[in-house]
Design brief:
Blueprint (H helix, E strand, L loop, with lengths): L10 E4 L7 H5 L10 E6 L6 H4 L9 E5 L7 H14 L6 E6 L1 H13 L11 E2 L9 E5 L13 E3 L4 E5 L7 E4 L9 H19 L6 H19 L5 H20 L5 H13 L3 H9 L7 H13 L14 H13 L1 H8 L9 H10 L1
Parallel strand pairs: 1-9, 2-3, 2-4, 4-6, 5-8, 6-9
Antiparallel strand pairs: 7-8
Pfam family, one: Fe-ADH
GO molecular function: alcohol dehydrogenase (NAD+) activity; metal ion binding
Keywords: Oxidoreductase
Length: 360
Amino acid sequence: MSYKNFPMVSRVIFGRGSFNQLSEIIEPKRLNTNAPFIFFVDDVFKGNAWLMSRIPLSYQDKVIYVSANEEPKTEQIDQLVEDIILTFKERPSGIIGIGGGCLLDIAKAVSIMLNNDGESKDYQGWDLVKNPAVYHVGVPTISGTGAEVSRTTILTGPERKLGINSDYTPFDQVILDPELTKDVPKDQWFYTGMDCYVHCIESLNGTYLNTFSKTYGEKALELCKDIFLNNTLSVEESQDKLMMASWHGGMSIAYSQVGVCHALSYGLSYLLGIKHGIGNCIVFNHLEDYYPEGVALFKQMKETHNITLPQGVCADLSDKDFDVMIKVALSLEPLWENAIGKNWKKTITPETLKALYQKM
Ligand code: NAD
Ligand code: ZN
């Protein structure tokens, strides 16, 4: 048996207000005055002096606002990389992503592509990246995806939605400042928080589970129950705990995999552009055959917070549309193997998936 040797985030700072230390953290990494720091910031923060005034800009440093309305695409990454190469005399000293999973994934992908030839679609998959990425820093402003800690950056390419999974993907530095999540809208808080919950359920119920993943998954699940079902927590406690739940949930899948919900949700996202958090909620709501206890608890959480999910998202789709989603979902073999086992193809057929999609 040969075990995988995983990299982790090398440095992390946690605490309310720790974002104020951004300058002292990154400044020693400045290569020279022509090598800028590029800050990719969710455009929801445009004009937000509370956050923006704390981003330290010197020399050629630049803020680039990016919308998180759509999930990152390979073309978008290639364009951002080209713009940086054409604009600056030197490669950046560092790339800093400030936002949710979208912005964190953009920062990771751009930092990889600045040091690797070709197009980002060529690196979608496992361990295809050859050169180390530019120094990159992640600052989550919404909690749940685990993108701050994971070894992947999820991109939608011309052929598939798949991550660039590599040893060079994890951040060199993460800043966990739960205060940054204070203005997240309630529904979005729930959807992205449920991504974390689903990571725990899929990891803890998967065949890839080992003690490393289990310990992280159990802690994250305990935190999720506390956050989403215990209404005695203060707002601050809830923000702090969800930020750490996201971290632990992400760590739990590092050595394991996600499962049925993520496979189906990738299909929805690829065809319909439905975003990850809400997509997972739409799918997970119908997975009682696969995760009976997890789904029951999910429904309880949904009721507690008065969340209404979209219905009938697949109602008007053609057979061809279903085939596209089914193809995307079935191509994610490690997810199915984790969820069902080595013989997953015996029970997971295009018909099984179509019946599930038709319920959504
Ligand atoms: P997001 O980046 O999609 O943002 C969701 C919404 O919240 C956006 O409208 C954004 O503007 C808003 N928002 C973020 N922070 C805010 C704040 N502090 N105040 C107000 N609004 C705020 O959110 P997400 O759910 O964290 O990320 C989803 C993305 O993450 C998807 O692209 C998915 O593929 C990716 N993902 C990546 C990994 C990974 O390991 N790399 C894991 C899971 C999901
Ligand atoms: Zn997820």
